[in-house]
Design a protein that fits this description.
heterodimer, A: about 525 residues, alpha/beta, eight-stranded mixed β-sheet, four-stranded antiparallel β-sheet, B: Rossmann fold, globular
Chain lengths: ~525, ~325
């Protein structure tokens, strides 16, 4: 039960998430926003279950994702354990840098390898590879070293930038053309000066004899240097040439690292921070679809122990196995299931694996996004009972996102009703189901078919469809479908406390029964 | 509810449909029998994989072959065994006398044709009408299912309609030839609850107005309570219980029906703990011997694992596939 004397474990204030809609090809402009979550405020208390309910597109999943910082909020704050998680993972971090430098070094290792094997053909195929993808207004450029004959590619860095303007595209084109021309020329030069070529021509392998070869070689050295500097300047990216000295490799290595640092200083998109990791240990997610949320190539042991490894929660192999077995027992899986793969399990059992994975890092809070909607009726009961038991034994706090009011009523202590990005009503479960004060909540409840033919009732059939969250009209979001709407509804109603703990966003919530003209 | 003997529209007798796969023969529908009367709504309820959809596809002879095959039984529609009919004659029945609506209105409509194109195709195929008459009929059914501005919207493409509206279009299509019988396979499962309420209301109203027989397939026991007159509960390819809608909720007899009803969370009342059916739905390649439910049944005895239970008549319109029917 909601206990007002307790401090909230999660405190969400004025949380907003807008997804911009862009138009145009070269110069994109924002023409509108999808108001997925629009200014919602609520608290979650320790040990309770908050049900987040609404129809599809109401923003309940987006809200759940923002609590985990899987989506970055447009504005507002999410305070978990007295820490504003929306501020996490935004600054430059060493983690990021080390990660990228390792990638660069792997690239270099390949490049060096291609030197040590004296073949012109090899050099020919080794070169820089620049690629870019366009997705949703963001441009990603990735650089990679192509190894011999394209047998593999080692990515050395990638960057996502919201720079879809002309100058950027021209720069990209320039880099492309330049890089490929030079690699080709260089490759030819390398071939002509390479030992294999000379062996083939029965000449001494140690000295370049063709004049063209020498010219090309010299041209290659100069142009590679230009290219390298250019790439560092234009894209913060480094490129290291195929010139036949190892010392050059080392020099280039230093330059690559400098370039990498420069690169990372401007790339702040990766929210992978130590604080973020620590936070994720406290908050875990249970997914809707047990078929796509488990990696089919990992055994149950691998899946459950991944979190233990990541957070160093097991010191030895034996302890790890012990912990995995304990978790499996907790969620009702048999010990002999440990080395099986997900495809060997039914939907309900898979959902149990997902739950064990979430529990493996001892979280305080679990966000479950439609945890039972993909399951069959009889399996649903098993999982709901399991979640209930786990809450009792482990003292977990749940946020359960669901569209099914029957499920929400069964599991929640408090319920928040959302509609088109807005919070409509929030109250304790008993009170909400006894006396819904918002017309939308009332209609939603009335729409749910009750498995009891004796209780056939006059349903409130709402007109029309859920409105689009793109640039919504001002005022109450529900006004066009509401049976009681009045002129005042063109102004946006605030979420006000009507009775203690029961907040409603409706102008007429206090005198709703007289407005409706019915006696409850 | 009782019906006159001559009002039987569809009579399914011992229907058996099997799938011949590499792993073995899947006995998806096994000895299913039921009757559907004119103006009756029969709810076919069960979990996924219990054979409810395959039953309906077998009635229309739409089971994918191979691997599926109807291996036995009879399906009388207006005293004519559909299983004996040629494919050509079946085509006259499908969409004309028996119409079907499917679960997912998003994928059941072809996105590259207008609604007009798809709706009129069915009308022109089955009725002797010219283009103008067909269009008139099309607009009429669209108005009947509550699509505003039907005259204009008939020229739209499916993506311009919302989910609920698309399902209305599907219903309009199904009703365009005044079928005697409608098979509705989870028509509201993909819809939001407020839209589900609209569509259920519509199906119920149309059924009453047109005195259609409806075979309503769903896994949602709430929807069944709203819409059905009689209910057949399926489990692992069998109908385990058949009775009217009031009895199934008040006095369910089969252990599976009871367990299923106790396992659903309720919106109208607080339940402290849900009932649980242990284990999982069986694999229908090697279904359990005897009663197919016995490994999960709390009342199972030795007899249940060896002998196939008979249909026990509890009262004239209540059957239960259990050795201990009416005595539990």
């Amino acid at each position: 039960m909601a206990n007002t004397t307790k401090n909230p474990i999660i405190s969400v204030k004025n949380l907003v998430k807008l997804f911009p809609i862009r138009e145009g090809i070269i110069r994109q402009s924002v023409v509108g926003n999808v108001h997925a979550v629009d200014d919602i405020t609520f608290d979650v208390y320790e040990g309770e279950t908050l049900g987040l309910v609404g129809e599809s597109g109401c923003g309940k999943t987006t809200a759940g994702r923002m609590l985990l910082h899987l989506l970055e909020p447009t504005s507002g704050s999410v305070i978990i354990n007295n820490q504003d998680i929306t501020r996490l993972g935004k600054d430059f971090t060493w983690n990021n840098m080390i990660y990228s430098v390792i990638q660069i070094l792997i690239g270099l290792a390949f490049l060096t390898l291609s030197y040590l094997i004296p073949s012109g053909f090899l050099a020919f195929g080794t070169g820089i590879f620049l690629d870019s993808t366009f997705d949703n207004g963001y441009v990603t450029i990735s650089g990679a070293f192509l190894d011999t004959e394209g047998a593999g590619m080692v990515s050395f860095a990638s960057l996502t930038r919201n720079w879809p303007d002309l100058s950027f595209l021209i720069a990209l084109l320039f880099i492309w053309v330049f890089a490929f021309t030079l690699t080709t020329l260089l490759g030819a030069g390398m071939f002509l000066t390479s030992p294999i070529y000379h062996l083939l021509r029965k000449r001494p392998p140690d000295f370049p004899t063709t004049k063209t070869g020498v010219y090309l070689g010299v041209f290659g050295v100069v142009s590679e240097w230009i290219l390298m500097i250019l790439v560092i300047i234009v894209g913060g990216r480094s490129y290291f040439p195929n010139i036949a000295t190892l010392s050059f490799t080392l020099l280039g290595c230093a330059l690559l690292i400098v370039g990498g640092i420069f690169w990372l200083r401007i790339d702040k998109n990766e929210p992978m921070d130590k604080k973020m990791r620590k936070f994720r240990k406290y908050v875990q997610l249970i997914f809707q679809d047990p078929y796509s949320s488990l990696n089919p190539r990992m055994t149950v042991y691998d899946i459950i122990s991944e979190g233990l490894d990541l957070y160093g929660l097991a010191t030895s192999q034996k302890e790890k196995e012990q912990k995995v077995l304990e978790l499996m027992d907790l969620v009702g899986l048999a010990p002999f299931h440990i080395y099986r793969y997900p495809h060997e399990f039914s939907g309900g059992q898979r959902q149990r694996i997902g739950i064990a994975r979430a529990l493996s890092v001892n979280p305080q809070i679990i966000i479950a996004d439609e945890p039972v909607s993909a399951l069959d009726v009889s399996i649903r009961a098993q999982i709901l009972n399991l979640l209930d038991d786990l809450q009792t034994t482990l003292g977990l706090t749940y946020i359960i996102v669901a569209h099914d009011l029957s499920v929400i009523r069964h599991v929640s202590d408090r319920v928040a009703v959302m509609y088109v990005g807005k919070m409509m009503e929030i109250a304790s479960t008993d009170e909400l189901f006894k006396q819904p004060l918002h017309p939308y909540t009332e209609a939603l409840m009335s729409a749910v078919p009750i498995p009891d033919p004796a209780k056939k009732k006059d349903r409130i059939i709402l007109r029309g469809d859920v409105p689009t969250p793109i640039n919504p009209q001002p005022g109450c979001r529900f006004k066009d479908r509401c049976n009681y709407a009045k002129d005042k509804c063109n102004q946006e109603p605030p979420l006000e406390e009507v009775t203690p703990g029961h907040r409603v966003a409706c102008w007429f919530s206090k005198d709703i029964y007289s407005v409706r003209g019915v006696v409850a | 509810m009782t019906y006159a003997e001559d009002s039987v529209l569809l009579d399914v007798e011992n229907l058996k449909t099997q799938f011949f796969t590499e792993d073995g023969v899947v006995k998806a529908v096994d000895n299913v029998s039921f009757k559907l009367h004119r103006g009756e709504v029969l709810g076919l309820v069960g979990e996924s994989g219990c054979g409810k959809t395959i039953t309906s596809l077998s009635i229309l002879k739409l089971v994918p072959d191979p691997p599926g095959k109807i291996v036995g039984g009879k399906v009388f529609f207006n005293d004519e065994n559909l299983l004996d009919l040629s494919e050509e004659k079946m085509r006259d029945i499908r969409g004309n006398e028996i119409a079907m609506i499917f679960q997912d209105p998003m994928t059941s409509l072809n996105p590259v044709f207008t609604i007009k194109n798809q709706l009129l195709e069915n009308i022109k195929l089955h009725q002797d009408v010219n283009d103008d008459e067909a269009l008139e009929k099309g607009i009429e059914v669209m108005q009947m299912v509550g699509i505003p501005e039907a005259k204009r919207r008939i020229n739209d493409y499916p993506h311009l309609f919302s989910g609920g509206m698309r399902q209305r279009v599907m219903i309009a299509m199904a009703l365009s030839c005044n079928p005697q019988m409608l098979i509705a396979d989870e028509p509201t499962t993909a819809l939001d609850v407020t839209i589900q309420a609209q569509v259920l209301d519509l199906i119920k109203d149309l059924q009453e107005d047109l005195n259609m027989a409806v075979l309503y397939i769903t896994h949602n026991l709430g929807v069944i309570a709203e819409i059905a007159d009689n209910v057949a509960v399926m489990y692992a390819g069998n109908i385990v219980e058949y009775t009217d809608v009031h009895t199934i909720y008040e006095k369910p007899d089969h252990p599976y029906t009871r367990a299923l009803l106790s396992s659903i969370p309720r919106m109208d009342k607080k339940i402290s703990r849900l009932g649980v059916i242990r284990g999982n739905v069986p694999n229908l390649i090697n279904p359990p011997s005897g009663c197919r439910f016995h490994p999960r049944c709390p009342y199972a005895t030795e007899k249940c694992s060896t002998q196939v239970p008979p249909y026990v008549k509890i009262d004239p319109s209540h059957f239960s596939l259990c050795h201990y029917a009416a005595t539990l």
